[in-house]
Design goal:
Radius of gyration: 35 Å
Low-confidence stretches: 38-47, 51-55, 305-309, 316-320
Structural class: alpha+beta
Strand content: 35-45%
Strand order of the largest sheet: 8-11-12-13-14-16
Shape: rod-shaped
Mean pLDDT: 80
Order of helices and strands: EEEEHHHEEEEEEEEEEEHEH
Number of domains: 2
Distance between the termini: 4 Å
Number of helices: 5
Amino acid sequence: MGDDNYKGQQIDLNTKSFVIINKKKRVNYKISWQKSRRDNTAFSIDALKGGGQAAADTSCSNEDVEDIIDGLVNAKNEKEVKEFVTKANQILPTLADGLCKTDLLKEISYTRAPLDFPYGGRLSYNEVITLTVERLGLDEKLIDTRTYIFETPQRDRWLIHYGLTYAPNAISRFSKYYALADTNATNKYTIKKENKNGPKPWDNISATINFTYPFHGDSRDFDGGFTGGFGLSAGLEVSGHAGLSMIVGQNIILSSGIVMIQKHKLNGEYKEGDIVKTNLNFDALHTKVWVPELFFTIGYRFPSNFVAAKKANSEAKKTE
């Protein structure tokens, strides 16, 4: 209160409470809440009584403190309350008299009122919360109504994350081959199958970009979703995958399903045991084919804006 240009702010998903500041005496405040996503029901709580208290009975003899306390008690509006609170905060560090400090802090406390936040648990992304404050006179007649809008961070339903995908040789298995030179003859090579010590497990790992659509639109510690994405292995084998995911918190996503992946298969011109006159390299012996395979992915979603999130969390602790 006290700032005519203030209309609201972005709040953190973990927001639990609000505080009205610069509250004026001899004015009652009645509030109601509204959240656009889950329901449109206005929540009301008891009026925040402005008081109508008499001027503070202070034993402080400091004229500046007395003037500020008198100003707070008899302020014409919230804007004046804000001005006197600012003056009080400026003079507090200079006060040596403990009684003056106590009196001033007590009067400042009357200008603040905590609000019970009616929405339990964690908020969701893309929510708009409306706080309506009715200013009532001591006769309970309406003076005016002020509306404040609070928005949670915006986020698309689709989550983009990066990760590593492992596609074992479980469904489509292909051996790899090489040309073995005949030590007893010139320009004579036999096509042989590589032994099992050739391919390594990391040959089946791809760097991937993934797109996950959560089952629920709100924010949860655990959720599921549909995932699709693309990958590229160290051997430049391209893949495209789709399946189901488990979303842990806001950043970790575990996925599994079916991937269409490129694998190296013996070129159709050759078969194991063929004799050739040329020392064929790997690319000459093999061709890439698209085959189905299982996949397992662990992905990480990077926060979009650390600075904005920290600032929103700080500002959410107070409401004007």
